[in-house]
Design a protein that fits this description.
By secondary structure, this protein is α+β, with helices and mostly antiparallel strands. It has five helices and six strands, in the order αββααααββββ. Strand 4 and strand 5 form a beta hairpin.
């Protein structure tokens, strides 16, 4: 087996191309690989960008008068963050989101909390109107550095079937400019 064949058989020459409809099975659980430490800047920018005028998110003096004693991170930022964290495993090949349901916020998020997430596939079905996609419903939870769930929801999305996703038109340079691999032995 050549060096290229060994490398390709280990990780695939194309890298991660995401899951397609056929790859989902009800009961599968994915722990999404990236966490994010939320900063006061994240919270203030998102809150003001979305014209949310709740002082509890951006006014330290006003929020110091609440039972929390400090600003709460905007819950819609956490929804967007956790959804974004799940894309690598769930909707890398999405055609469209269909909805978020049963959104719950069981614990607050504060500046400095690190948010992680996981999802469980609840159901999948073929689309009745489009042969190129299927419909997947998942339950997703975001949790902090202490393992406390801070958000949960169900999300339904249309995902391409294998062979129907748009082709990446990005040109790639010849790989001959990459350095040679040293120390490869026959496997």
């Amino acid at each position: 087996m050549s060096e290229a064949e060994v490398q390709g058989s280990r990780i695939g020459n194309e890298g991660w191309t995401g899951r397609f409809f056929e790859d989902f099975e009800p009961g599968d659980v994915y722990y999404h690989p990236l966490g994010k430490t939320v900063t006061d800047t994240d919270n203030q920018w998102f809150t003001l960008l979305t014209q949310n005028t709740a002082k509890v998110h951006f006014d330290h003096v006003a929020s110091s008068q609440t039972e929390f004693g400090k600003p709460l991170v905007n819950s819609t930022f956490i929804l967007a963050l956790v959804t974004g964290q799940s894309v690598i495993d769930l909707s890398f090949n999405v055609m469209a989101n269909l909805g978020w349901d049963e959104i719950r916020l069981p614990a607050p998020v504060f500046d400095g909390d690190t948010i992680y997430s996981r999802s469980k596939v609840l159901e999948k079905r073929t689309s009745k109107s489009r042969e190129n996609v299927g419909i997947v419903t998942v339950a997703t939870e975001g949790f902090n550095q202490d393992g406390v769930v801070v958000i949960s929801y169900k999300r339904t999305f249309m995902v391409y079937r294998r062979g129907f996703a748009p082709v990446n038109p990005t040109p790639r340079p010849d790989e001959s400019s990459l350095p040679s691999v040293h120390g490869v032995t026959d496997v």
